Known about the structure:
- By secondary structure, this protein is of the alpha/beta class.
- Helices cover 39% and strands 18% of the residues.
- The chain has helices spanning 16-27, 57-71, 94-120, 145-164, 190-194, 205-216, and strands spanning 7-11, 31-36, 47-51, 76-79, 125-130, 170-177, 180-181, 203-204, 225-228.
- Helix 1 (16-27) packs across helix 6 (205-216) and helix 3 (94-120) runs parallel beside helix 4.
- The longest helix has 27 residues, at 94-120.
Amino acid sequence: xxxxxxxxxxxxxxxxIGAETVKAFxxxxxxxxxxxxxxxxxxxxxxxxxxxxxxxxATAQRVISEGxxxxxxIDTLVNNAGVFIAKPFTTYTAEDYAKAIAVNVAGFYFITQxxxxxxxxxxxxxxVTVTTTLVDHANSxxxxxxxxLTKGGLNAATKSxxxxxxxxxxxxxxxxxxxxxxxxxxxxxxxxxxxLHPMGRMGEMSDIVEAILFLDAAxxxxxxxxxxxxxxxxxx
Length: 236
């Protein structure tokens, strides 16, 4: 099989932003390695579905090794998988903490390490990670310490990776969303969540997907935390 087509790995790819990201990259003729716990095999020969828990190092290993075996290379990694647990700080449980660390941090760490090792082989690549604007703009109406602890770490890691690999042809960026209309948010909560944004509406999944595609196609941008949040990070 030809290895000239670019290959993107998308985590959390079974629904929501992840599934829309897969569709968008396929329209650009990328080959896709899509992973999530509940992902189903694809009829498209250019989409390899790898089921598994992204927090498990063995899943990361399978995703990258099977992707390279099938398509010959890894060009882009989209770290989309994540959990958001909104609770007052003192009511978080040990289980909440462990889940947030496992998915948001370990789920980023293991697969990014393996993906970058593959990118180094052809001195080119891009890691883009989905975080949250609450890292930069906390809101008393949305308790979010675990999100800030974990996703804030990913913003910092993004900048660190960008600098470490800048001269090796590998870029790292993040997309920092506001509240996005996705299966995670019940319709009855949309009015309240729209009011959190200065623009007066929730974001669409396409807003985040287009930001990911923009960063992937922008070769002189690295270390950027791109806020796609209806103005939240700017103020109120």
